[in-house]
Structure formats: C-alpha cells, structure tokens
Write a structure and sequence with these properties.
It is globular and about 60 Å long. The chain has a domain of 223 residues: FAD/NAD(P)-binding domain (3-Layer(bba) Sandwich). 34% of the residues lie in helices and 29% in strands. The protein is built from 11 helices and 19 strands. Helix 1 packs parallel to helix 9, helix 9 packs antiparallel against helix 10 and helix 10 packs antiparallel against helix 11. The strands form 4 sheets. Strands 6-5-14-15-16-13-17 form a 7-stranded mixed sheet, with helices on both faces. Strands 8-2-1-12-19-18 form a 6-stranded mixed sheet, sandwiched between helices. Strands 3-7-4 form a 3-stranded antiparallel sheet. With 375 residues, it is of the alpha/beta class. The structure holds flavin-adenine dinucleotide. The site of flavin-adenine dinucleotide has 30 residues, from helix 1, strand 2, strand 3, helix 8 and helix 9. Flavin-adenine dinucleotide binds next to helix 1, strand 2, strand 3, helix 8 and helix 9.
Length: 375
C-alpha cells in the first residue's frame, strides 16, 4: 500500500464496512472501524450470495470459513405460481471449479465470519459511536467522534448504509432514501429436501422465493406492493404475509399455513438511493448502500458492497495521487453498481404494474453475465 494511505477510518460495521476493513488490513493498512450500534447485531433472516460474491470472498481470504456456515448451491430455478418449472439457470463457478457457484447464508453467520476475520486481522473496532464531524486538508482528515474522542486519518470510508450520515455530511440533502412502493416479507422454515437451489416463483399475481441457508434451514421471501408505506401492527404480520402469497400454489402454498408466528416475520419496506456523481470528496468516500442502496430483486446489494470494498483496497495500493486512485475506483464501480441499482428498481416497478411482458428470466441471465465479468 502507498505510504500516504496508512491509516483508514471505516464508518459502519455492516457487510461493506467489514469487507473494507478486511481488504485494507490484508494490505497492511491500520483500520479503525466505528459502528453506531452498541450491540453489534444484524437484522433479517438470510441472504443470497451469487457467484461473483463467492469469487470475491475467495479474494478476501474468507471463503473457507464462510462456506462452513453457508449452504452451497449451483442453480437458480424459476417457477410459475403453480410451481411448474420454467427454467433452470446453471450456476457459474467463478471462484474456481472446487468451489460452489452460489450460497445462501444467514445474516448472523455472515456477520460472525466477517467480524471475526476483521478483528483477528487487527481492525480496531469501537461500538456505540459515530462521526460527529470532520475536517479535511490536503494530507488527511481530522475526525471528531460522538464520544468526544478524535483521530486523524489518511482516508475515511463511509459504509454506514442507506441512511448514511457520512453521505449527508458530503452531499447535504441532495440524496435521500426513497420508498419504492414495495416491501419484502421473510420467514424461516425447516429446509424442504427439494430446496437445494434458489427457487423463485413468479407471476403477475405475486411472487416468492425459497433460499436454502443450511441443511436444516431455509427462508421464504416475497415482495409486495404496499402503497403509501403503511405501518402494520406487529401482531398482524403473519396474517398479512399469508395474504401476500395467497395466489401461489405448490410448495409455497403448502408452507403458507405454517406462517403463524408474527414475531418471526421480517417485514421491510424497500428504500433506495443512488449517488449520481463521484462517491468521494477529497479523502472521504462512500461505499455500499451509503452510495447505492437498491431493492433486493437481483440479490446483489451486498454483492456490490463487497465488490466496492475489494476494488477500493486494490486501487488504493496503486500509483498516483489519492484523487487519481479514487477516480479509478469510481471508473471500476460506477456503471456496474448503476446497472444493478436501476435494473433492481425496474424489476420492482414491473411487478407493481403486474406487467405480464416483463422478461424476468432474461434480466436474471443478463445480470449473471454482467456480474461474472471481472471487477
Ligand atoms: C429485504 C432485503 C433483502 C436483501 N437481500 C439481499 C440478498 O439476498 N443479496 C444481496 O447481495 N443483498 C441483499 N440485500 C441488500 C444488502 O442487505 C445490502 O446491500 C447490504 O447490507 C449493504 O451493506 P452495507 O454495509 O453497505 O450497509 P449496511 O448493511 O446497512 O451496514 C451499515 C452499517 O453501518 C452502521 N451505521 C449506520 N449509521 C451509522 C453511523 N452514523 N455511524 C456508524 N455506523 C453506522 C449500521 O448500524 C450498519 O451496521 C437485501 C436488502 C434488503 C433490504
């Protein structure tokens, strides 16, 4: 790593921030990471990580530990709402022939693998605080933290998610999260023997997916149109989720009646934001959802955050001024993330319009082709 980048502050201990810490520590950079939550928990159920992510996990040096706690699978199956197979899209083994194409992993397991690795590599993690303010000059950034402490860094990486404080500090109110009109419903089940791949059920009357997370566990997700972004009573959630998938037969229909515990339904309105200009000013940069939060329709939001982290560490170790290196980072990241962001949002809009001409299979294949390209 160039000697002018020897100490970096990462703001946010989610997937993107942790991967940035890991990648930078592997380059010998000192990393402080601050996370606003005092209990470092993660919300949600599980996450799909596709072949490009498996490849980048290998490059981050975490693949073996990660695969131990993930469910490896090859194909994506797309079915109609009666459960009839429409197409089976074969997986691409981008990490090498000995590694699986795709994985499903619980968010908690992913967090544990990444946080343990980051800490073992020497990342200095502080919980329950954030950045209060910063001032930068030509050679560094002076940061004041919310606990009254301070530090000077060669670079600050804002990986603080869709409601990024660092984004507001850089761009004011220019970029604010927007509700897309849809929400996601998720629920865990014992894994059904037939769910040894990602199964996606699609049609104008609804949609759902089943994702294996381990030999014993899988989760169901469904996206729905929720005009006005209503706030539901927590006790209603199981009944509402059953309603949203009531037009789906086959395995989803069989599982539907098992959605009875509202406390286990994870409901999340979809919010998006895209910073449509370079994601840095001086020595302060955004990555992940802070720069490009999108909907989960292509299952690539975390994938893009992980890729950002890896490309950042690679570009920082290159030559040129800090600005030139960050510009090269942007060149490698902007269009790829924009494609994922825009096409994910477009898929949701076509669902809301109940557009029977929406070529979801074509979009999935195009996304897989694009994300297979090296970063
Ligand atoms: C319902 C749903 C399903 C999804 N499914 C998938 C999927 O299957 N595959 C996939 O690849 N992606 C998926 N995504 C997207 C994925 O979850 C995100 O893209 C990913 O979590 C982004 O990581 P991040 O680190 O940028 O942000 P986050 O995961 O949001 O992490 C940000 C971190 O910063 C912390 N923080 C916030 N503010 C501050 C502050 N001021 N100071 C310090 N710390 C702060 C937060 O507490 C958090 O720990 C899904 C998203 C949703 C909503």
């Amino acid at each position: 790593m160039s000697s002018d980048i020897s100490k970096v502050l990462v703001v946010g201990g989610g997937i993107g921030g942790l991967c940035a810490a890991i990648a930078l520590r592997r380059q010998g950079v000192a990393v402080d990471l601050v996370e606003i939550k005092s209990e470092w928990t993660v919300y949600g159920v599980g996450i799909i990580q596709q072949s490009n992510v498996v490849r980048e996990m290998a490059r981050l040096g975490v693949l073996d530990g990660y695969l131990e706690v993930a469910y490896a699978f090859e194909d994506v199956g797309i079915y109609d709402l009666q459960g009839n197979a429409l197409v089976r899209i074969p997986g691409q083994r981008l990490a090498g022939p000995e590694y699986p194409a795709n994985v499903g992993i619980s968010r908690l397991s992913l967090h544990q693998v990444l946080s343990t690795t980051a800490i073992d590599l020497g990342t200095q993690v502080r919980l329950g605080l954030s950045v209060e303010s910063f001032q930068q000059d030509a050679t560094g950034v002076d940061v004041s933290f919310t606990d009254g402490s301070a530090g000077r860094y060669d670079l600050v990486v804002g990986a603080d998610g869709v409601y990024s404080k660092i984004r507001s500090m850089l761009f004011g109110d220019t970029y604010k999260p927007r509700f897309t009109g849809q929400a996601v419903w998720r629920y865990n089940f014992p894994r059904h023997p037939s769910i040894d791949h990602l199964a996606s059920y699609v049609g104008a009357e609804g949609n759902a997916g089943l994702v294996p997370l381990s030999d014993d566990l899988m989760y169901m997700f469904s996206t729905s149109h929720e005009p006005g972004n209503p706030r539901y009573e927590p006790a209603q959630l199981a009944e509402l989720m059953r309603d949203r998938i009531s037009k789906i037969a086959g395995l989803v229909g069989e599982l539907r009646e098992q959605i009875t515990d509202s406390s286990q339904v994870v409901y999340k309105p979809m919010e998006v934001v895209f910073v449509n200009e370079p994601w840095f000013k001086g020595r302060v940069l955004l990555i992940g959802d802070a720069a490009h939060a999108t909907t989960p329709h292509l299952g690539q939001g975390a994938g893009m955050a992980i890729e950002d982290a890896l490309v950042l560490s690679l570009e920082l170790s290159g030559s040129g001024s800090v600005e030139e290196r960050l510009e090269r980072f942007m060149t490698r990241r902007f269009e790829r993330c924009k494609y994922i962001s825009e096409n994910s949002i477009m898929a949701g809009e076509r669902e809301m319009a109940r557009d029977a001409t929406f070529d979801r299979i074509g979009l999935t294949k195009a996304m897989l082709k694009l994300t297979a390209e090296p970063i």
